[in-house]
Write a structure and sequence with these properties.
The chain is an alpha/beta fold. It contains 7 helices and 4 strands, in the order ααβαββααβαα. A 4-stranded parallel sheet has the order 3-2-1-4. The longest helix has 28 residues.
């Protein structure tokens, strides 16, 4: 592989990688369009990763998905942790808190087991722990489909691998300001 890499100029390798990324992105977008065209509740998550990645990539990706495929907020149910429900408004009307199901200590233990099984923190595949969390937190939802973070990782990997520039992320993520949310019980002065 090293000899072949030395023979093929960097610009050519990058161009080929970008073309492969476009083909894979088109396939993922077709899958997302099919998911959006249904009538099931779309369960987005569970998000178990870094908070920074949640803010920089997952929230904008879901906002893009909802707008791009005209998904009504009532169809999106986000599963995350740490009280992040406000981050997903107004494009997702429903939110389930993982810490309502697990204590922080139990979450940490199970998350550490997930890291060992996955080999990394990023949610590049759906593991048993994630399936169990979703089952427990959405057992009252009759018809549901899953939009797992691995879809976002699959779409954004070409950017992280430096095969495409940041425009790639901006074309698959919609960034915006969060609406201010007063703390519970706050009454604004008259």
């Amino acid at each position: 592989m090293g000899a072949l890499k030395a023979l093929v100029p960097h610009a050519v390798r990058r161009g080929i990688s970008a073309q492969v990324a476009r083909v894979q992105a088109a396939r993922l977008e077709r899958n997302l369009a099919a998911l959006a065209s249904g009538h099931d509740t779309i369960v987005a998550g569970p998000w178990l990763g870094e908070v920074g990645f949640e803010l920089l990539y997952w929230v904008p990706f879901l906002r893009w998905f909802a707008a791009r495929f005209h998904v009504a907020p009532e169809r999106l149910l986000v599963v995350s942790r740490g009280g992040t429900a406000a981050w997903y408004r107004p494009f997702a009307a429903n939110y389930r808190e993982i810490f309502d199901y697990l204590t922080p200590e139990e979450f940490r233990r199970r998350h550490d087991e997930r890291l060992v099984a996955n080999g990394e923190q990023k949610q590049t595949q759906v593991l048993a722990f994630e399936r169990q969390v979703l089952r427990e937190l959405t057992e009252d939802v009759e018809h549901r489909s899953m939009l797992h973070p691995s879809t976002m990782y699959g779409l954004f990997n070409p950017f992280w691998w430096r095969h495409v520039d940041e425009q790639w992320v901006h074309s698959h993520g919609t960034y915006g300001r969060f609406a201010p949310t007063p703390p519970p019980g706050f009454t604004p002065p008259a």
